[in-house]
Amino acid sequence: MENLKSSSDVLFILMGAVMVLAMHSGFAFLELGTVRSKNQVNALVKILTDFSASTIAYFFVGFGIAYGVSFMTGAEALTQKSGYELVRFFFLLTFAAAVPAIVSGGIAAGIFGSKLLGGMGGVHILSQLAGTALGIVMALAGGAIVYGLLKTTVGLRLDAEQEFNGTDLSIHRISAEPEKQPVL
Questions:
Q1: CA distance linking residue 120 with residue 109, whole number of Å
Q2: Long-range contacts of 20-25 (CB under 8 A, 24+ apart)
């Protein structure tokens, strides 16, 4: 049973990693749409170079520091639990490699898209800042709507007095202030 659970965990994480890896092609096509046709090959090479450099850096430095797992061990140690550590490395690598792709693509589209620097125009830093601000506002508004819906339909776990006193007092009966210790 443990082997089935471990194998299904590995499959779930691998599917997530493949989906995040597919986002890189979306980043590539987005960036290709913002540069001239003569620069599209250079943009693709830059994206592949970003992913390659991120992979090497994460393999030798990032994963070992973050999780204490070294890849300089034998294959039998890395394939324990149906290869969970290897698949987890791949999953986290796809996120680590997404960061430079997003940053460099945003810089290339925003700064080098300007007509003053030889770009096609249409994409400016101010429009990127406005889009970022709109994204933040939409996330906050969406969170408030979801919070309100959950509060009215399901109800929150704590009432107003418990929330005011703090969750430690209401759940664990421990107060941050000694004079407010509950009487049992």
A1: 10
A2: 20/91, 20/94, 20/95, 20/98, 21/94, 23/94, 23/98, 24/51, 24/94, 24/97, 24/98, 24/101
Interacting residues of 82 by C-beta distance below 8 A, sequence separation 6+: 3, 6, 7, 9, 10
d(CA 95, CA 32): 21
Q: What is the pLDDT of residues 44-59, one digit of tens each?
A: 888 888 889 988 988 8
CA distance 160 to 63: 43
How many helices (H) and strands (E) would you count in the chain? Answer: 8, 0
- Tokens 């125009």 belong to residue: 121
Q: Map 83-98 to HEC letters.
A: HHHHHHHHHHHHHHHH
Distance CA 63, CA 94 (A): 12
What b/e readout covers 11-30, taking b as 16+ CB neighbours within 10 angstroms?
eebbeebeebbeebeebbee
Q: Is residue 32 a contact partner of residue 44, using CB atoms and an 8 Å limit?
A: yes
At 75, is the secondary structure helix, strand, or coil? helix
Instruction: Please give the average per-residue pLDDT across 10-28, as a whole number.
Output: 86
Q: How confident is the model at residue 29 (pLDDT cuts 50, 70, 90)?
A: confident
Is 80 exceeded by the pLDDT of residue 13?
yes
pLDDT at 110: 61
